């Protein structure tokens, strides 16, 4: 399967934060959801993918090409939605379109107007008067109007009402129908991913934890429930994190089969949500022993 984005051993350090040895790839023709808590490095990774930042070490390639030699060609083929307003606020949407249009060889005015209509956006009002949702819709309109092969979006659903969030997910779903497009988007709202993501890439504290096909996550990860008496220093090591209650414990394992072999039918295994995986991982490997007694 072809990779549209590849990161190989990418490092980027700021004062107090570091992306460490991040390697993962994004498959052509699929939707990959990019998840992780606040401040774990999602936007930094996306900026590296967009060449808005350069890695200290390691390589980023897009469509198999290197930014050093092929920046223009790569950018032509990407539609980018950023989580901050990147428009000139004093301009109208039409004026902004006039600036952006000549940049893209495959700009499609009919497509632009179809999104403007669908999103009910005013063409002649200053962008400074747009609400947060309208800015996001305008940003999406620009990103979707030049037949980009790869759409990269940083938190496209944040700050949007549930109705528009659903509409956006439907649009993304429709876009995927021809099999040629690829979408990579970050989100905190893991419920959005249930609807459309084929793959999940998860980072935590600047490290890549996994990239997996969505449906295979439950082959490795499970919520484990059992009696506290089953836990000791050795068995606790089996878990990413544990919560202890009066009546028993709940834990997350990343090695479902092994856990099953160790505990047999003394425990109950359940399918975890992405939120469970984020929560237990965020609290620290084997360090999250929370008592509710
Ligand atoms: N240009 C920069 N200079 C210094 N530190 C930075 C810079 N950009 C990001 N950081 C720091 O790097 C860390 C990761 O930030 P990043 O924006 O990538 O996180 P994120 O996962 O996108 O978070 P959120 O979900 O809250 O937006 C943060 O601690 C942030 O303060």
UniProtKB/TrEMBL annotation:
Matching PROSITE patterns: ABC_TRANSPORTER_2 (PS50893)
Alphabetically ordered keywords of this record: ATP-binding, Nucleotide-binding, Transport
Domain ABC transporter: 5-230
Highest taxon of source: Bacteria
Transmembrane segments: none
CDD domains: ABC_DR_subfamily_A
One term of GO molecular function: ATP binding
Name of a matching Pfam family: ABC_tran
Protein name, UniProt field: Sodium ABC transporter ATP-binding protein
The organism of origin for this protein: Ureibacillus sinduriensis BLB-1 = JCM 15800
Native organism taxonomy: Bacteria, Bacillati, Bacillota, Bacilli, Bacillales
């Amino acid at each position: 399967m072809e990779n549209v984005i590849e990161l190989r051993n990418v490092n980027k350090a700021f004062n107090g934060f570091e992306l460490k040895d991040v390697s993962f790839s994004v498959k052509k023709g699929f939707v990959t959801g990019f998840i992780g808590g606040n401040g774990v490095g999602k936007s930094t990774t996306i900026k590296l993918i967009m060449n808005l930042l350069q890695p200290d070490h390691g390589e980023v390639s897009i469509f198999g090409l290197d930014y050093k030699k092929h920046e223009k060609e790569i950018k032509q083929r990407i539609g980018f939605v950023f989580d901050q307003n990147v428009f000139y606020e004093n301009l109208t949407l039409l004026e902004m379109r006039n600036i952006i249009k000549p940049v893209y060889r495959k700009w499609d005015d009919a497509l632009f107007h179809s999104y403007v209509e669908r999103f009910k956006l005013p063409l002649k009002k200053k962008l400074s008067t747009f609400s947060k949702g309208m800015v996001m819709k305008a940003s999406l309109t620009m990103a979707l109007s030049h037949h980009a092969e790869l759409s990269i979006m940083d938190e496209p659903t944040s700050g949007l009402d549930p109705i528009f969030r659903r509409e956006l997910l439907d649009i993304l779903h429709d876009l995927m129908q021809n099999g040629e497009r690829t979408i990579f988007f970050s989100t905190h709202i893991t419920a959005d991913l249930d609807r459309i993501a084929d793959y999940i890439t998860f980072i935590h504290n600047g490290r890549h934890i996994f990239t997996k096909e969505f449906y295979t996550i439950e082959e490795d990860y499970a919520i484990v429930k059992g009696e506290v008496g089953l836990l000791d220093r050795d068995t606790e090591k089996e878990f990413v994190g544990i919560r202890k209650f009066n009546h028993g414990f709940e834990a997350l394992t990343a090695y479902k089969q092994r856990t099953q072999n160790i505990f047999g039918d003394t425990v109950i295994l359940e399918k975890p949500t992405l939120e469970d995986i984020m929560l237990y991982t965020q609290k620290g490997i084997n360090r999250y022993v929370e008592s509710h007694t």
